[in-house]
Every structure is written in structure tokens, then in C-alpha cells.
Amino acid sequence: MRTSAKAQLPLLRRCVAVLAVALSVLVTGCADGGGTTASGSTPSPADASARAAAARKQLATNSLVPLKGGTPAPKLPVTVDSSDGRKVTVEDASRILPLNGGVAEIVFTLGLGDRVVGRDITATFKEAKKLPLATKAHDVSAESVLSLEPTVVLADTDTGPAEAIDQIRDAGIPVVVLDPATELADVATRTTRIAEALGVPAAGKALNRRIGDELAAARAGVPEGSRPKVAFLYMRGSAAVYLIGGKGSGADSLVKAAGAVDAGTASGLGRPFTPITSEALVKAQPDVILMMSKGLDSVGGVDGLMDVPGIRETPAGLDRRVVDLEDGVLLSFGPRTPLVIDILVDRIHAK
After folding, report:
1. How much is the pLDDT for 43?
2. Any idea what DSSP says for residue 99?
3. Strand 78-81 relative to strand 87-90: parallel, antiparallel, unpaired?
4. Is Transmembrane helix tagged as a keyword (predicted)?
5. For the CA atoms of the chain, what is the radius of gyration?
6. Which one of 26, 80, 222, 309 has the largest count of C-beta atoms within 10 Å of its C-beta?
7. Dihedral sign from CA coordinates of 184, 185, 188, 194
8. Is the CB of residue 175 less than 8 Å from the CB of residue 217?
9. How far apart are CA 78 and CA 199, in angstroms?
10. Which domains are assigned to the chain?
11. Please, are residues 103 and 157 in contact by the beta-carbon 8 Å criterion?
12. What pLDDT, on a 0 to 100 scale, did the predictor assign at position 255?
């Protein structure tokens, strides 16, 4: 799991932020679909539900929505900072290999998907499905990477093993390493860095504007006065992995953006993930449980989840309020993240 997040903003700052978001949406509108009503008024619950329905429909296609305006032409060479402390010069972006699913989403959405020659196992969206795998499990195979003859490789600090990355570099291929994206603020930073490394900075700015507008519209749909507590549970029943998210889980940032309170963080869990106990669940008292779809399936769906000790003693368990989203999307922190927020705003505030 990836870790890092910031503490929740005080209530006053949150209120100011919500007002600012609403004002931004009213003044600028929302690109590619909008978030206000036709008259420009604050979105109603019905508007939030409509956005969520559209988001679910788009996610069901498992495909990306590229930027408008055609394919950008990379302007190279460029020299960029790599998160492993190196300076990396990229001279050719004709054969791009992203070794991370979220990174691949950004590359494709920028309009450079026809230049991508392979994929990481976490790149599960439709456009990448037919590309050859360059990883096994979650480890990079240097031999597989080199066989694809990439002209630039995009990785992050979690990509490994280190020996494989070194072997790729020793073959003369530039490897740009990025910081992992673990909170909403990282989306813009990562998009900017990827676009700069591939010589299309203007496309990066355009994509950040689109994502920002979509996020603003989603957040503007948060019902006034609604602050449910949401617990993110990471489960893999077959492997006996049962964890509750806390500060830095990544999900805490999404929950906060959707106008809710991260139950794990609020109950004092200072680590990203803590083994689930009945006591921890009862203390967290979540109104809603958030999970990855495969994790929920691995414990037998909602019925099976209710049998996990402590679940039935929470408000979420009593009401069977469980929200699940596809594994490759929920914590991707990329161009599809606004769709995640649309769905969360609608489902976690539902009465």
C-alpha cells in the first residue's frame, strides 16, 4: 500500500474551502459536463445523483476520456528532475513505457496512448489491455522492459526491484522516477511532471484544468451539514488480510474531498493501515464502509462482511451501508479520480 497524507483541515478552513469551490464552479463552470444546474445555482441532491450516475456509466466502460484538441506533439529534448535524486534527459518519446497504472492513465489521457509500448499489471483500463506486460506480480522484469525497446520509462519510487531499474538505466534508457500519488493534491503534481518529461507541458496544464473543474463540480454537490464518518477497509479474505485505514491511507484524502470524515483517522489511527479488531471498529463507529470491489468480493460480499467481528456493532454494519469501487480506480489518483469523488459524494451522503 502506498502511504502519505496530510492532517484534516480545521472546520473553519474547510467551510472556507467549500465556499471557494462553490464560487469557482458558479463563475467558471465545469469543463466536459459541468457541475452546476442550468441556471447556475448550487447543485441539488438530484444533481449530485445525476453526476454519480454518469460517473458510474463512464467507469463501467473501463475506458479513458482523452483531452480534446488532438494528439500533442512532444517538444524534446528536455531534462527533468527524477524523484531518486537524478537529472534525466529525455530525447525521444516515441516509445513510452509507464510502469504504474495511474501513470499510464495520465499518459493516455494526455493523448499519447498510441506511443505506449507496454504496461504494468495495475494498468487495467481498456485502452491498455492488449499491451504486453512488463511486470510480473508487482515486480518489474528488466528483460521484459528491454525487449519492448522503450525510449523512455516512467516509474515511481515504489517501482522495483532496484536492480531491475538499474539494469534498464545501464542499457541507456532514461528512467524518470515520480513520487507516489497518495492524496488528491498529488494528481496535479504528477500530471505536470509526466507532461514535462514527455515534452507536452501545455497538455499537462490543460488536463490539470479539466481535472480541477471536475473535482470542483463534484465537491460542490456535498449536502450542507452532512459529515458522515467513513471507514476504509482493505481486505483480502483469501490471504487473511483485514486492515482499517487511518491517516495516510490515501482513502482518507478521498473521503475528506467528498465532504466526510475518515473514521480511522478520527478514532486516532495515526498509521496508514492497522489490523482490524472489534475494538477498533467500535471505536471508529463508521456510518459508511468504503472498500475495493475485489476486497469486498474476497470476504463474500456484504453478507460475508457482516460476519467480520465488530462490523455489526457499527452504524454502517447495522444499516449495511457499504460503498465499493473498482480496485484499479479507487486509489489511482489520476484523470478518473473526479468520477470517484462524484460517486462518493452521492453514496456516502445518501439517507
Report:
1. 54
2. S
3. antiparallel
4. no
5. 21
6. 222
7. negative
8. no
9. 7
10. 11-64+215-348 (3.40.50.1980), 78-199 (3.40.50.1980)
11. no
12. 97
All cell numbers assigned to 55: 460517473
DSSP string, 161-178: -HHHHHHHHHTT--EEEE
The C-alpha angle with vertex 91 and arms to 90 and 92, in degrees rounded to 5, equals: 100
pLDDT at 11: 34
pLDDT at 44: 58
Q: What is d(CA 244, CA 232) in angstroms, rounded to the nearest whole number?
A: 6
Which mean pLDDT values do the consecutive 10-residue runs of the chain (351 residues) have?
Answer: 37 35 33 37 70 96 93 97 97 97 96 97 93 88 96 94 96 96 93 98 98 95 94 95 96 97 96 95 96 97 97 97 94 95 95 73
Grid cell in block for residue 240: 487473511
Can you give the length of the chain in residues?
351
For the entire predicted model, the pTM comes to: 0.84
Cα 140 from Cα 121, distance rounded (Å): 10
- From the CB of residue 1, how many other CB atoms can be counted at a distance below 10 Å? 15
